[in-house]
Design brief:
Blueprint (H helix, E strand, L loop, with lengths): L6 E5 L3 H10 L4 E7 L11 H8 L3 E4 L3 H9 L7 E4 L8 H6 L4 E5 L11 H7 L4 E8 L9 E8 L6 H24 L33 H10 L6 E5 L2 E11 L8 E4 L2 E5 L4 E9 L5 E2 H8 L5
Helix pairs in contact: 1-2, 1-6, 5-7
Length: 303
């Protein structure tokens, strides 16, 4: 697709924003990138800042709502449209209104389902059969704006947050490339989200979410392992050893929740309903290993 003659201002800070921005430059002209500044204590690059520097894109900084308001009071850009992905700063009404065509958020769920901070992890956690991308004009409320387009995709049974994120980034780029020029040209009339009373909400995960509660059903814990594989990671203790479980499968077995056993060269742990076979795990300071390798090195601790 040829780049539109129109320009946009891009708002984004995280790694999803960086990947999305790089893809977006193939379709649209980016007048400026608005992102969070790199904290003084941070080591290494910030992906969005590093990308903007590499592509010689104008970069503007705001770490909170007030700084963003103050920034746009200086009239730093002329773009009629903004696009926001993975920004992490609340965009106030003054900034939304600054862009005559508004600001489009590419939200990684089928709104109004999973409004909020972490729709991808929560779609996996709840065992949803599908998710998708919603292009939405933002307003002052939480993911309640009018929709430009939505498209769904299937969530595979072994999907993890990273694999699903990659698929949604690609779908997002496809929709932005196709529908943003049409929206700019006035060919699309945004519509109100369907069934707002059925909205569900995600939230930011915390470190405590990663502590496995073996009284939960095995099906739920297995979803947590896939959803939390990057953060906060699903961790527990096995025979006094702190471990992160990275892959498991559900089996029909009954026992005391939290009890680990070894049989048929596999580590099994009982839960509140059924049990889990630990396929892959990681000890503190060690590389990830298979359950069989763990038994070879540490199995005696479970006897």
């Amino acid at each position: 697709m040829q780049k539109t003659s129109k320009t946009i201002v891009f708002f984004g800070s995280g790694p999803v924003a960086a990947t999305s921005l790089e893809l977006l430059t193939k379709h649209l002209n980016i007048e400026a990138v608005v992102t969070k500044p790199k904290p003084a204590y941070h080591r290494g690059d910030f992906p969005v800042i590093a990308l903007a520097e590499r592509l010689s894109l104008q970069t503007l900084y705001a770490s909170n709502k007030q700084e963003l308001t103050d920034l746009f009071a200086t009239k730093p850009v002329t773009s009629r449209l903004g696009i926001v992905i993975d920004f992490g700063v609340i965009i106030p009404r003054e900034v939304i209104d600054y862009c005559p065509l508004g600001i489009i958020n590419s939200h990684f769920s089928l709104l109004p389902k999973w409004r909020g901070a972490d729709p991808i992890s929560f779609a996996i956690l709840e065992g949803d059969a599908k998710t998708g991308v919603s292009l939405m004009l933002i307003d002052e409320n939480l993911d309640t704006g009018k929709l430009i387009v939505q498209k769904s995709l299937i969530i595979e049974p072994d999907e993890t947050t990273p694999t699903l994120t990659d698929k949604l980034i690609s779908l997002s780029d496809e929709l932005l490339a196709t529908y943003v020029p049409r929206y700019i040209s006035g060919d699309i009339t945004p519509r109100v989200q369907p069934h707002p009373s059925r909205a569900t909400y995600s939230r930011k995960l915390t470190k405590d979410d990663g502590v496995i509660d073996w009284h939960k059903p095995a099906v739920r814990i297995e979803r947590e392992i896939r959803a939390f594989i990057e953060w906060p990671k699903s961790h527990t203790q096995i025979a006094g050893k702190e471990v992160i479980i990275t892959q498991a499968r559900v089996i029909d077995a009954t026992g005391k929740p939290g009890q680990f056993t070894i049989s048929d060269r596999q580590v099994t742990v009982y839960t509140g309903k059924q049990a889990l076979v630990i396929a892959r795990l990681k000890l503190a300071g060690k590389n990830e290993m298979s359950g069989d390798s763990f038994i070879a090195g540490y199995g005696q601790l479970l006897h």
